[in-house]
Amino acid sequence: MSHEPSKLVKNPGQKTISNKASCRLCGEEKALRKSHIIPQSYYRRIKSGNGQLLKVRGDETTPPTLENSDPKDRLLCHDCEQFIDKNYEKEGTQFFKPRSSTIVMPNYIKIKNFKYRIIYLYFLSILWRASESSLPQYKELTLGNIAPLIRQCLINKSLSISPQVRIDHFIKICVMRITEKSGTISDRLIKKCLLDIALEKGEELSEGFLFYFMIDGFLVCYLFEVVNSLELQKAARYLSQLEDRSTIKLQKVDISELSQLSSLFSTVTRKVLEAGPPR
Ligand SMILES: [Zn+2]
Predict the structure, then answer these.
(1) Angle made by CA atoms 130, 134, 139, in degrees to the nearest 5
(2) Residue 214 to residues 54, 70, 117, 178, 202: CA-CA distances in angstroms?
(3) Does residue 116 form part of some domain?
(4) What spacing in Å lies between the alpha carbon of 107 and ligand 1's midpoint?
(5) pLDDT tens for each residue of 24-49
(6) Does 4 fall in a domain?
(7) Closest among 254, 272, 250 to 262, alpha carbons compared
C-alpha cells in the first residue's frame, strides 16, 4: 500500500521542541522514527571496507573525528520514511555507485539515463532533513521560508512551486568528484571521508550562500544565490551543476582548487597518521 502525504496539511512548523511529535513531512501527530539525516547506506559502504569513518565538520573550530555513529533525529513517521525511501532514496543512493550507465573519463564522469527530477529531489531531501533536525550540528542550518517549499516539492514529487517558478531556479545543486592529483592523499581516503553538511556564506549576504557535504568521494553543493531577477536565476549555470538532461557530466575537481576542503583534508590526514595507517 502506498502512502502519499496529504497535500492539504499545513506546514508542520519550525524546529521547536513542542512539535517533536508531528511528522515533518505529513504534519500528522504520529510516532516518529529516528530518521537518518544522511542515508544510512553510505555509512554501511564506508564501514564495509573495515576502515574507520572520518567525520569532518565543515567549520574551523570542530576538529575532525573518527567515529561510527551517523546523525539521526525523530523527524518522520513510518509511512513518510517509506515514501522518501521509495520515491527518492532507492534511486538516489545508487547514484554514486559505478554502474553500466557510468563512464569514467580523465576529467569527468559521464552518467547516462540520468533521472534529474528524482536525483535533484533526493539531494534536496537530505538538506531538508538536516534543516528540520534539532541536532546541535545543524543549528546553523535553517532554510527559513524555503523549507515549506521544499517540503511541498517532496510531497508532490515535483520541482514546480507555481506554474512559472521551479525550486531549481533558485537552489542549484552541483555534484563533483574530488580527486588529488599529486597523490599525497589517497583516493581511498577521499572516498572514506564523510563531510557532514556545512554552510559557507559569502562575505556579503548579496553574494549568496551554499551548503555542502561530501560522501563517497563526491562533493554535493547546494547554491542559494541572491539574484533579484528570476530570469537571471533561471539562466545561471555553475560548474558540474545537475541539469535536466538524460546524460550529464560530473566534473573531477582537484582538492587543491577547494581551499577550505584541502585544509580540512590536511587535518584529516594528520588524524589518520595519529590513528595508524588506513587499511
Ligand atoms: Zn508522516
Answers:
(1) 75
(2) 11, 14, 21, 9, 20
(3) yes
(4) 42
(5) 999 999 999 998 898 888 877 766 65
(6) no
(7) 254
Residues 233-274: tens digit of each pLDDT:
666 677 888 999 999 999 998 888 876 666 666 655 555 445
Asked whether residue 39 is domain-assigned, the answer is yes
Mean pLDDT by 10 residues, the chain (279 residues): 49 46 93 89 67 58 64 93 97 91 93 96 96 88 92 98 91 90 82 80 65 89 75 72 94 81 60 45
Q: How far is the CA of 34 from the centre of ligand 1 (A)?
A: 12
Structurally, the chain folds into a number of domains equal to: 1
Distance 183 CA to ligand 1 centre (A): 46
Range of the domain at 174: 23-275
Instruction: Give the angle 29-74-95 at the CA atoms, nearest 5°.
Output: 115
Instruction: List the shell of residues around ion ligand 1, using CB closer than 5 Å.
Output: 23, 25-26, 77, 80
Distance 215 CA to ligand 1 centre (A): 27
Q: Is residue 16 part of a domain?
A: no
